[in-house]
Protein 1
Amino acid sequence: MRITIIEDDDRVARALVTVLTQSGFEVNRMATAAEAVRAEPSDVVLVDLGLPDGDGLDLIRRLRDRPETAVIAVTARSEEHERVRGLRAGADDYIVKPFGIPELLARIEAVLRRTRAHRALRPEDEPLVLGPMRIVVGTREVTVGGAGVTLTRKEFELLLLLARRSPNVVSREAILDQVWGATWEASSRTLDTHIAAVRHKLGPQVPIRTVHGVGYRLAP
């Protein structure tokens, strides 16, 4: 299981990395929200709410776009209204500093149980089939004509958006907003680069059509 720690306090982060690694988890530590947004998905993300480059609540809202990831808010804010804000922002659980390691491990185990149950029931595990292409959202697997296609996280999200809207056109603005987020400084050049990469990986069997002046549509 992979856990990502988003914590700017080096002392706290080192302690968490040590304990969680000893508990058998694969651990990745980041210090800013910007790093976290670009990171590969994890099974669990521990988010400190007082990050140097933004409110941790905003990051939690962004992470909610990753249904396979459980989010635990880790903070010194103990007031009830702060806990409520964290949960309403999308955190699966909330733990207040200082906390004991047994409590943290128990909370991680609890959110993992809920996430596994959700994965077992959710419709995303049903494959999305368009022509020769098959997408399994829950495992992020893509095949074309039975052959596996390896995509980055953003490439997968871009393809999934186009596939779910197929055969309709998706505007460039909608893609930038939904894949990179309204607050993310993604340029048109970024989108063009990702479209070109996905086209190359899918090949001619699954064409992504350009609708000039509007956007793109997937037309397998």
Note: The two ends are 35 Å apart (CA to CA).
Protein 2
Amino acid sequence: MTEIEKNRPLISFIIPVLNEEKNLAETIRPLKSLDWLSKEIIVADGGSTDQTVAIAKKWVDKVYERKPGERNKSIAENRNKGASLATGQYLFFIDCGVKIQRFPDFVREVLKIMAEKSKLVGITSELRFYPEEESRIDRVNLWVINTTITNFNKIRLGAAMGWVQVVRMSAFKKIGGYNEDLITPEDVDLFRRLNKIGRTMTLKNFVAYGSAERYHREGWPKMFGLFLINWFSYIFRGKSISKEWKPMDKE
């Protein structure tokens, strides 16, 4: 084993950001608390105009920083930029503001299952909104989304939302990472392509909590409509209908 391999972190946490000064520290804190884990934390900035980059530099190991006035063309590109700085065996993509239930246990379970199942190349979690934001109709609709994602992974179609995606570095490189030309569903596309070289799964009994703001602002009918038209455009045309997909809690 070379010195580089000996010092290689087990997990590279990658947080794609754009003007996230209010949420970034809160997202990083649980990652840094994993003292038992060999890790690195990477923030990939998409061209923030607030204090996001300055905060990141105080907290994390590596920051992908853009030139003044430069903006990312998609969150897929942002995630790829973060991955380009990573050296871990596993890439752990987590969106800013997302909180994972029993986070240390989730990380341990991911590592355990990945070690046991050599053909497993991607893991995601179930999704919920923050408890203080989640309504009854939200719970029903999220159940539909979680069930669909879980079943797609079981039958090797592959699916995940970008809130949480854990991928073997070797598999990520083999498929060429995220498709940067997709505004959405770049997250589903990644897991679909991963299923061509291995297996993906939803890790049950663990929940990633995120903001309901966009869903409440736009409404579920519009959100499901956007999902569907972009999905069919992706399947039949290989590209998105949407020209922009903003962060969860941004106007």
Note: The longest strand covers residues 199-210.
